[in-house]
Design a protein that fits this description.
Layout (H helix, E strand, L loop, with lengths): L14 H14 L6
Length: about 35
């Protein structure tokens, strides 16, 4: 994946959900992606 876009989402997640989201985003994004 080259780009991941998220808008006004983190305020709806608890800490564990936000951490899981960031871990998954890091996992699926290509090196150098945004």
């Amino acid at each position: 994946m080259d780009v991941l876009y998220s808008c006004h989402m983190f305020e709806h997640l608890d800490r564990d959900e936000a951490l899981h989201f960031l871990e998954e985003a890091h996992r699926v994004l290509k090196d150098g992606a945004t």
